[in-house]
């Protein structure tokens, strides 16, 4: 049965801006993508293509459905926060009660909600 999460897919009407956000702000890397017959990108964390981007369709109006957000395990809290601050990007940073995990919540350029989870030992 299921043994892991393969990838998320987001839709964008502005591929360069979306790639800038996920690559230059969040640190994913653009990598190989098969010819799927439409514009888009695959973004990698290490060797895994964990985020697929569709750039050939309009963003559906209204609510994004039952999926609330995507969450990534991350490192470099201080550096990531600095990148957000330098670009004037809005975010909500909090430390989870109990576990101490740092959680940075934000939205990508198309409005998808993203959570970055950092080890409690990281400092600002």
TrEMBL record:
This is Glyoxalase. Residues 4-119 form the VOC domain. PANTHER family: F18B13.24 PROTEIN (PTHR46142:SF3), PTHR46142. InterPro entries: Glyas_Bleomycin-R_OHBP_Dase, Glyas_Fos-R_dOase_dom, VOC_core. Coiled coil: none annotated. SUPFAM superfamilies: Glyoxalase/Bleomycin resistance protein/Dihydroxybiphenyl dioxygenase (SSF54593). It comes from the Bacteria.
């Amino acid at each position: 049965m299921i043994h892991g999460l393969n990838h998320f897919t987001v839709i964008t009407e502005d591929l360069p801006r979306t790639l800038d956000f996920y690559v230059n702000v969040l640190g994913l890397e653009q990598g190989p993508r098969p010819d799927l017959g439409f514009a888009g990108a695959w973004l990698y964390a290490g060797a895994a293509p964990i985020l697929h981007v569709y750039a050939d369709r309009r963003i559906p109006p209204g609510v994004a459905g039952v999926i609330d957000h995507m969450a990534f395990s991350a490192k470099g809290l201080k550096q990531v926060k600095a990148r957000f601050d330098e670009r004037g990007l809005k975010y909500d940073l909090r430390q989870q009660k109990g576990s101490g995990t740092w959680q940075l919540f934000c939205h990508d350029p198309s409005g998808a909600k993203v959570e970055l989870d950092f080890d409690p030992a990281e400092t600002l």
